[in-house]
Amino acid sequence: VDETQLETVETPAAPEDEPAPAALVMVEADGADVCAADGTCW
Amino acid sequence: VKIEVWSDVVCPWCYIGKRRLQHALARFGHAGEVEVTWRSFQLDPSHRRGDNQPTTEMLSGKYGVPPAQAAQMQERVTAIAAAEGLTYHLDRSLTANTFDAHRLTHFAASRDLADGIHERLFQAALTDGEAVDDTETLVRIGTGAGLPADEVRKVLDGDAYADEVRDDIATARALGANGVPFFVFDRTYGISGAQPIEVFLATLEKAAS
Q1: pTM for the model
Q2: Which residue of A has its CA nearest to B169?
């Protein structure tokens, strides 16, 4: 197997039309009154 | 100011957060220039549709505590909700997969009825103890909000708005959301959780300036 070809297949280029969202300035982060992404609300 | 709010309809803090944001908007001098968009988030996307277990029972099992202790956890949130004018009956709330409820919200948004359906879904899940993944329940909620029954049924029977729901969830994660409610102002300022009204008001003023 040509290693150069293999590497090309495994690292696809990022879509050009999907810019990463800019980082937010968090006014309040991870407050107590939140349901965490794992479903923990309590 | 454009505000995007990520929430799940079975999330007790999300309805509280929605009310606090609304109370802040009522005190904000330029509320007419604020646009609020409801975004989708699923706390448990793997939850099996139709598995509608009492939430108290689920909590008891998840945390390994007696049902009475799980009920106490719910009572604390119920009291906080009451302070915002919300009547929770978490003792009768049920677990559910909320994917279809979110698809319905996106359909309602396409008819400018997003806020109405959002409110009804929260009430169904947190006040009325309804299974918000049951098709007939969602049809009733949709028609109650002003959507035509046949179109709601068509949406729910197919996969309309599924991509929109997935996109919302992916965007929330890309923006760094670790939970809900999650509020984003002009894609610049973020608030995690049902924070006090003053926090929302200060952020509104900052975003508008």
Answers
A1: 0.90
A2: A37
